[in-house]
Amino acid sequence: MRAALTGVLLLAGSFALAQSQTTEAEQAALLGYDAECAPYGIPLTTETGNEFPQLQTMVTVPDVRNDSAAFAKFQSINASIPNIPIKYPGIQYDPNADPDCWWTVSNCVTPKLAGLNMDISAAPEPRTLGYGFDDGPACDHNEFYNFLSAHNQKATMYYIGIYVMWSPLQAQRAAADGHQICVHTWSHGNMTQMTNEEAFGELWYTMKAIKLVTGLTPTCWRPPHGDVDDRIRYIAQQLNLDTIIWRYDSFDWENGLNGVTNATVQNNYDTLINDAKAGKFDTGGAIILTHELNNFTMGMAMSNYPALIDAFDYVVPLAVAMNKTTPYVETNVTFPSFAEFTNQTKSSGSSSSSSSGSSGGSSSSSKGASTNGTNSKATGQSGAVALGPSLTLAVAVAAAVAGAAFSA
Ligand SMILES: [Zn+2]
Predict the structure, then answer these.
(1) pLDDT at position 68
(2) Is 383 helix (H, G, I), strand (E, B) or coil?
(3) How many domains does the chain have?
(4) d(C-alpha 27, C-alpha 20), whole Å
């Protein structure tokens, strides 16, 4: 990546145009870190960067006060946001009483505050795994996404707003491949340590980035580190976002840190797999926390996939497990209900698809809808996915270096 970045800078400095991918398909065809992660820009993001917070990693939080649309929405909910203390480090808090249903200290998923929806911490359908990955889009995820496509396997992808803006074509691939996209906040900080405005902005701008790039508005989010309490749940719910947690953690993200090794992570996968085989999910399914963070985490996902497919009857994105057939605000993309999915997979893998090819709502992209079948061991392969017109973006040669263009 260093070499590639230098190359682009040199070219830009001499007013030559870097050869760069401009479409989702071009990006999806690349393999290897240097090629996949070479910086590029597409007008969709480079020309709208000033509508977003800075893209410097993990430090900035959005300021909604300079954004009339965001601020109007924030103002409309601000007065009703519960008056729950910000969880500054070192705060005195009784995890047993747990008045705020603060997951970080108690794994609480049933809000104490009336009117809040429960967190989703397990797939509701029996013998079913809600399959998903945090921290994307990873710039070098093509091998992993190729693997998922080869198995006709859909997943739920929890995307970080900054990464969506850095790697918009990679984000588009998730939509094109029929995965479900959820919000994983803008900067991946601890949400309960943020002010109301900051927490709102983390969700708002990630939704906006995903909408800009894919034409789709998510209705689900996962708090980084699981850090959520009733104040944050309330803000998310006002933005029409379901809160998704987990009950199993692979700790794949922590490999090499804090004594976590490859063996630890494999052992965590094995725990889930063995629990499934032992019938622990016969009345309700599971969700495990895994990541598309790097080669190791994606490699573990691939190497454990056969065992997961064997241990669970159904491995599906959460939309399918929850019977949420239209998991975006836009209704042109549909997922099968759980019953449709299971019938589909039982009937010899016959495919069903829908395609409407309606506009994604952004000025320069459109995509077709897909029926997102997923793999199950009933047939090995489920219905094929039919996509409408592939993403078409205004073609322009990228001259901007990703990241640098968004510092407005
Ligand atoms: Zn994360």
Answers:
(1) 87
(2) coil
(3) 2
(4) 9
Instruction: Please tell me the distance between residue 9's alpha carbon and the centre of ligand 1 in angstroms.
Output: 30
The domain of 196 spans: 119-346
* One domain, residues 272 and 126: yes
Q: Give residue 83 CA to ligand 1 midpoint distance, Å.
A: 26
- Beta bridge partners of residue 269, listed in sequence order: none
Helix (H, G, I), strand (E, B) or coil at 369: coil
Go through 184-206 and write b for each residue having 16 or more CB atoms within 10 A of its CB, e for each that does not.
Answer: bbbbbbbbbebebbbbbbbbbbb
Cα pseudo-dihedral 64, 293, 254, 219, rounded to 10: 50
What CATH number should be reported for the domain holding residue 240? 3.20.20.370
Distance from the CA of 290 to the center of ligand 1, in angstroms?
9
Full pLDDT tens readout for the chain, 408 residues: 333 333 333 333 333 334 478 999 999 999 999 999 999 999 999 998 888 887 654 445 556 777 888 989 999 999 999 999 999 999 999 999 999 999 999 999 999 999 999 999 999 999 999 999 999 999 999 999 999 999 999 999 999 999 999 999 999 999 999 999 999 999 999 999 999 989 999 999 999 999 999 999 999 999 999 999 999 999 999 999 999 999 999 999 999 999 999 999 999 999 999 999 999 999 999 999 999 999 999 999 999 999 999 999 999 999 999 999 999 999 999 999 999 999 877 554 333 334 333 333 333 333 333 444 445 443 333 333 322 222 222 222 222 223 222 222
Catalytic residue (choose from 141, 151, 184, 291):
291
Ligand 1 centroid from CA 133, angstroms = 9
Distance 327 CA to ligand 1 centre (A): 21
Q: Is 94 a catalytic residue?
A: no
Cα dihedral 211, 214, 219, 225 in deg (nearest 10): -90
Same domain, 168 and 295: yes
Residue 95 belongs to some domain of the structure: no
Q: How far, in Å, CA of 268 to CA of 275, rounded?
A: 11
Q: What is the pTM of this model?
A: 0.82
Give the Å distances, CA to CA, from 296 to 141, 153, 290, 306: 11, 20, 11, 17
Told to judge if 291 belongs to the known catalytic residues of this protein, a careful annotator would answer yes
